[in-house]
Write a structure and sequence with these properties.
- With 139 residues, this protein is an all-beta fold.
- It has a domain of 74 residues.
- The protein is built from no helices and 10 strands.
- It has a 5-stranded antiparallel beta sheet with strand order 1-2-9-4-7, with no helix packed on it. Strands 6-5-8-3-10 form a 5-stranded antiparallel beta sheet, with no helix packed on it.
- 23% of the residues are buried.
Length: 139
């Protein structure tokens, strides 16, 4: 699917069956990312969706850009800190909105099953693991 780009003068919708889930080098192999609006590699607004299957985790990492997460389905578990600590996870149900300032170290766990979040931010998209040994791009 060719997503909508900022500045296009055309009405466009993205339906669930239009979402083009792809592997993302910075994620574990089972996780998926879909660009819904914009070009996440450019300095412009973008919307992406992240799908994490049951039991998967994203180890502590940070993003340069401020992010707004909207939980689309499942329960989104996110915790803050430089080390993965299941005790610090907070659960957010579908419809919840989480604002994450850029530079905040955090981690995720699909604790109770698969979840999908929608991320709105201004690019370019970034992902830096606190511990480089957790970065799938370096393994």
């Amino acid at each position: 699917m060719d997503g909508h780009h900022i500045g296009q003068d055309v009405f466009r919708s993205v339906l669930p069956h239009d979402v083009d889930w792809q592997p993302f080098a910075g994620f574990p192999p089972a996780a998926r990312l879909a660009v819904v609006v914009g070009d996440a590699s450019k300095p412009e607004p973008f919307v992406v969706r992240v799908k994490l299957p049951a039991g998967e985790r994203l180890m502590p990492h940070r993003h340069r850009e401020d992010r707004v997460y909207t939980v689309v389905s499942g329960v989104f578990y996110i915790g803050q800190g430089d080390e993965f600590d299941e005790e610090k996870l907070q659960a957010y149900p579908p419809g919840a909105v989480v604002v994450l300032p850029g530079g905040t170290p955090h981690f995720h766990l699909a604790k109770s099953g698969e979840y999908v979040t929608q991320v709105t931010a201004i690019g370019p998209i970034s992902l830096e693991y606190v511990d480089a040994r957790n970065d799938p791009r370096k393994q």
